[in-house]
Specification:
Elements (H helix, E strand, L loop, with lengths): L19 E3 L5 E4 L4 E9 L2 E5 L5 E5 L5 E3 L2 E6 L30 E4 L2 H18 L2 E4 L6 H8 L7 E5 L7 H9 L4 E5 L28 H9 L6 H10 L9 H15 L1
Parallel strand pairs: 1-7, 8-9, 8-10, 10-11
Antiparallel strand pairs: 2-3, 3-4, 4-5, 6-7
Length: about 270
């Protein structure tokens, strides 16, 4: 006689199947045991790495029923394409796969010159497009008060300005104090020129040379290093080509640009 085994477990106590979700980069999930919520930035060896909105990382085992996705229990599985590797922009932010550029905000970020704008675009361009922030260059800060007055910053049109060589007692610091307000923020780095915000090691030198007062800084730098002083534009393009990410820039610049992006998008 064939033997049968009866399942006497009540239906409401049986484990219900849960969906399996590929751990694609950028997927935001919560680990219920710890309450840690973050975006997937890595997946390998049976584990998944999450990054929260403060940049903190946690590694969790990819166990069945181990995560919450929009409040629902799911099982994370390795994507069909293979291991997930961290996907980041040049600024170090987690890249958003397939993200489209946002319609430009009314707010703006102004920088002093063309070289400043090119450097900001290279490192923060992906982030700025996602946020809809446009960067424009001024050609100097002498006329900044009238420029800010014409812009008329407001709650829906915040203005951020990045200034070179913003040190106490300087002309730039006095201008910055005059225009900074509730909806306009002026910040700066201590370097004479944006070139100096690139780490010397990234361009293959020991240090940026000191240039005597009264001498054009870029020209003096080129002469001291044996670079073509009659074509500083070409020299800058060579410097810019050596910048691959935020790791090639000095912290004094990184913090100020991030501060402006946060201010304009608040």
């Amino acid at each position: 006689m064939r033997q049968y085994s009866a399942d006497l477990t009540p239906p409401w106590k049986k484990s219900q199947p849960v969906p399996e979700v590929p751990a694609d980069p950028g997927l935001v999930v919560e680990e219920p045991g710890t309450g840690f919520c973050g975006a997937v930035i890595g997946c390998e060896a049976g584990t998944v790495t999450l990054e929260d909105r403060f940049g903190k990382h946690r590694v969790f085992p990819m166990e069945p029923r181990g995560f919450l996705l929009e409040g629902r229990v799911v099982t994370l599985v390795r994507p069909a394409s293979g291991p997930v590797r961290p996907s980041r922009t040049a600024s170090g932010s987690v890249a958003v796969p397939g993200a489209r550029a946002r319609v430009a905000r009314a707010g703006r970020i102004y920088v002093e010159g063309r070289h400043d704008a090119e450097l900001v675009e290279k490192v923060w361009g992906d982030d700025l497009r996602v946020e809809g922030v446009v960067v424009e260059y001024l050609g100097g800060v002498d006329d900044l008060p009238s420029i800010v007055a014409d812009f008329a910053p407001g709650p829906d049109a915040r203005l951020g300005v990045l200034v070179d060589h913003l040190v106490p007692g300087s002309k730039e610091s006095r201008i910055a104090e005059a225009v900074t307000g509730e909806h306009a923020l002026v910040v700066g780095h201590p370097y004479i020129d944006i070139w100096e915000a690139v780490k010397p090691a990234s361009v293959g030198i020991d240090a940026w040379p000191r240039v005597p007062r009264g001498q054009d800084w870029k020209t003096g730098v080129c002469r001291a290093l044996g670079w073509p002083a009659d074509n500083t534009g070409a020299v800058w393009q060579a410097i810019l080509a050596r910048v691959g990410s935020y790791k090639d820039l000095e912290p004094e610049l990184l913090g100020r640009v991030e501060e402006l992006i946060d201010f304009v998008t608040a």
